[in-house]
Structures are given as C-alpha cells and as structure tokens.
Amino acid sequence: MVFENRHASSSIRQTPPVTREVHSVQLSASRPDEVAELFRRLGYRVKITGGRGDQGIDLRVDEDTIVQCKAYAGRVGPAPVRELLGARTHSKAKRAILVARGGSSAEAERFAASVGIEIWDVGALVTLHRSTRH
Q: What 3-state DSSP class applies to 111?
C-alpha cells in the first residue's frame, strides 16, 4: 500500500512497514477517531462512520477507501477480513483497509491478499505519520 504525503512540497511516497510485534510498542491509536486523526494529519479527507449501523465501515478516507479498526489485544483472524470484504462490495469502495492493534494471523493475511484487502497494524500507520511530519 502506498500513501502520498499531501502536505509536502515535493511528493513523498511511503510504504508503511508491516510490524508483526505491535505489543512491544506503546500505541493508543486503535480507536476510529484516533486512526481518523492520523489519516487527516497525512492530508486525507476522513469521515468517521462507525457506530451502530456502520455496516462494517469505521472510516471513509477520501472518496474511494473504507477502513475498519479492530482494537483486539491479539491478532485478528480471517472473520474481520471477510466482514470488510462484504462492506467493500456493498459500498462499492475501491480500497479497504483493516487497521488492527494486535496484528493479524497468517490465515487472515493470506485471505486478505487473495481478495485485495489491506491489513495494517496500527504501528504502521503511526510510523508513516511520524516519518512524514516536518
């Protein structure tokens, strides 16, 4: 996944690292409002849609991306990926990102890769934010 820092005078393209050991990092950005703020600081338009009746979508980033946030203490399995796939299909979004505080299982990663869902641990998003600040 590549995000472009829209605040920089020259385009900076960053691919967030995949961090498997999130538990060793003290991060609180796993709630949808915190994740939304990180995307905003990267220059994206974000709408928080989570709550009752959110149909599996916590955030809409720009016009074509949906985000689901999972604050599980452990790794997410394939079930949240399947739910996000359904949400992406229903919403007709081009991209879907599952942001997980505790990382993801190998089974979830394989399934996500097979259906074009991106899984980010929250550490990757925080790292991207920190690397693009001026």
A: helix
How far is it, in rounded angstroms, from Cα 131 to Cα 92?
Answer: 31
Q: How far apart are CA 113 and CA 122, in angstroms?
A: 18
> How many of the other CB atoms lie within 10 Å of CB of 40?
13
CATH classification for the domain delimited by 28-132, as one of 3.40.1350.10, 3.90.700.10, 3.40.630.30, 3.40.50.360: 3.40.1350.10
Who contacts 72 (Cβ-Cβ below 8 Å, separation ≥6)? 100, 101, 102
80-120 per-position pLDDT tens digit: 999 999 999 999 999 999 999 888 999 999 999 999 999 98
Cα-to-chain-centroid distance, residue 122: 7
pTM of the model: 0.74
76: region left, alpha or beta (phi > 0 left; psi from -120 to 50 alpha):
beta
Nearest-angstrom CA–CA distance, 117 and 31: 20
Give the start-to-end residue ranges of the domains of the chain: 28-132
